[in-house]
Amino acid sequence: MVDQSPPLPPLHDFATWEPVLRFMLTGDTQRRADLPARVAGRISRYGWSLAHRGSMPATARTAVEVIQKALGPGGVQDGVQGGIQDGVQEREIAFRAEVRPDGSTTLGLVWPSPAVEPAVGYPDLGVLVLVEGAVPEPWRRLPVPAPGAPAPSADLELLERTLRERLPDAIGATEAEIAATEARLGVALSDEFKVLYRVMRARWEDWDPEYQDQANTAVGCELSALEHLYSVDAEIRHPGWDLGATQALGTPADAAVQVLAGSPGWIGFGSNGGDEYAVDLTPGPGGHTGQVILVDHEQSIGAELVADSLTDFVMGRTREEGRGRRAGRSPLAARVGAGGLATVEAAAHPALEVLTIGMPDGPPFSLGPLTEPPRLRTLSAFPGALADPLEITGLTGLEFLELGAREWRVLLDAGAVPRSLKAAAVAVRDQDHLPVVAIANEILALWDRPRIVQTIIEGDLGPAT
C-alpha cells in the first residue's frame, strides 16, 4: 500500500514552530511593553518541557506532535543541516526564540550533542560535560573505613532456625557458590548474609510462583538470587550535573549510615517492589556492620536504616526513623545574595564545597575573601553578580562552574578558564540569548569536546495584540 500521508514539515521551517511559540507567548507582558520577549524549551520524542503554564491549545499540541514525529525514526531526513550529526538521527531538540515588538523573530534550534547533558535549569542548552563520563564528587566519594561491629541483635542460630522453619524445602547455596559471590563482589559477606543464602539460594528454578511468595514473606522482601547480588553503584544514581553539582552532604558523627550515593559495601539483596534493600558492610560511625538499609529509587544520595541486623529484619524488628538529619546550616554549601548570606566573607569556611552567588542587593561580590577554600568544587554565580570574574583563577579546585555569558567572555578572552573543570554551564537570564551557543562551543573546544550544532531561523509572528 502506498503511504498517502502528506510529508512532514521540516524541523527547520519556521511555520512548524509558529504554533508552539504563539502558545508560549500567551499573556507575555514584555511584547506589550514594546520589549523583546524570549521563550525557550525542549521537545523530545516522548515529552516536552515548555516554560509556560496553562493548558495547551489543540494547535500547539498538534505542532508539538508533528515535531515529535519528525524526531522519530525516518522523520529527520539525511542532509538537513543541524538535523543529523554523524549520520545519527536525533531524538530531542532544544530551542530558544527572541520575539521583537514588531513580531520579527529569531529562532535558534539546538541539536543534541554528546558533550551536553540536558538539564532542567537550562532549557535550551544544558550542562557542558567537559570530561566524558564525569560525575560530581559526591557520586565519586567512597565510604570512610569504619570499625563497625555486628549489632548485638545479630543471632546466627536464631536466623537459621527461623528461616528453616519457614522454608523447610528451600535449596541452599554451597560454600563454593558463596565464595564465588564474594570474589565477584570484592567484599567479604557478613556471617548473617552467609546464613541466609546457605538456607536459600533463591534461584527461579528452585520454586513455583506460590513458593516464591512464601519465600519473600519468610525473608521480608523480594529476595534476589545469590548470583544477582550487587553493590549499589553511585554513578547509576547520578541525577545530572545541574542537580548534582550543588549537592554537598556530610555524615554526622553519630550517623548509622554514611551519607553516600553508593558503596562497594552496600550489597543489594532484595526489593519492596520499587526501592532496594541492602546489607551495609560500610556503616556510619553510629551503625553496625551488616545492618539493613533501604536505598530509595527516588533519591540520588543516601540510604535509610531499616534494621540493625539481618536477624532483626527477618524477625520483623525494623526501625521507623526518618531520613532527614540535616539540622542547622552546614558549612559545606552556602548561598550568598538573593535571600542568602549577605557577604562572601560569611560563606568562607575551610569545609566549603559549594558556593552559589545570587543577584546582589548592592555592588557585585568579590571572591577575594574566599582565600582558596581547599574543598571548593562548585561555583554558580548569577550573571552580573561578580565584581571581577578573573578572581576565579585563584580557585584551583573547581570542577563545576556556572557563569553568565559576559563572565565567560572575560575568562575566555583572558585564557583563564579553569582547567580543573569537569562540567560547566552558561547561565542565561536577560542577556542576549542566541549567541550563547558560540560561547559554549569555545568552552568545549578547550577540552576538544564535540561542538553544539545550532540552526538559526528567521520568521514573523506579527505585532502583539
Helix and strand topology:
Elements: H1 14-24, H2 29-32, E1 37-44, E2 48-50, H3 58-71, E3 84-85, E4 88-89, E5 92-99, E6 104-111, E7 116-119, E8 122-129, H4 156-166, H5 175-185, H6 191-199, H7 209-219, E9 222-223, E10 230-232, H8 241-244, E11 263-271, E12 276-280, E13 291-295, E14 304-307, H9 310-315, E15 333-336, H10 344-347, E16 354-357, E17 378-381, E18 400-404, H11 405-414, E19 423-427, H12 436-446, E20 453-460
Parallel strand pairs: 15-16, 16-17, 17-18, 18-19
Antiparallel strand pairs: 1-2, 1-5, 3-4, 5-6, 6-20, 7-8, 8-19, 9-11, 10-11, 11-12, 12-13, 13-14
Helix pairs in contact: 1-3, 4-6, 11-12
Unreliable residue stretches: 1-5, 76-90, 322-328
Shape: globular
Q: How does the helix and strand content classify structurally?
A: alpha+beta
Strand content: 15-25%
Largest sheet: 7 strands, mixed
Terminal CA distance reads 47 Å
Radius of gyration using CA atoms only = 27 Å
Characterize the structure shown:
With 465 residues, the protein is of the alpha+beta class. The chain has twelve helices and 20 strands. A seven-stranded mixed beta sheet has the order 7-8-19-18-17-16-15. Strands 9, 10, 11, 12, 13 and 14 form a six-stranded antiparallel beta sheet that branches. Strands 2-1-5-6-20 form a five-stranded antiparallel beta sheet. The radius of gyration is 27 Å and the shape is globular. The protein starts with 13 loop residues before the first helix and ends in a 5-residue tail after the last strand.
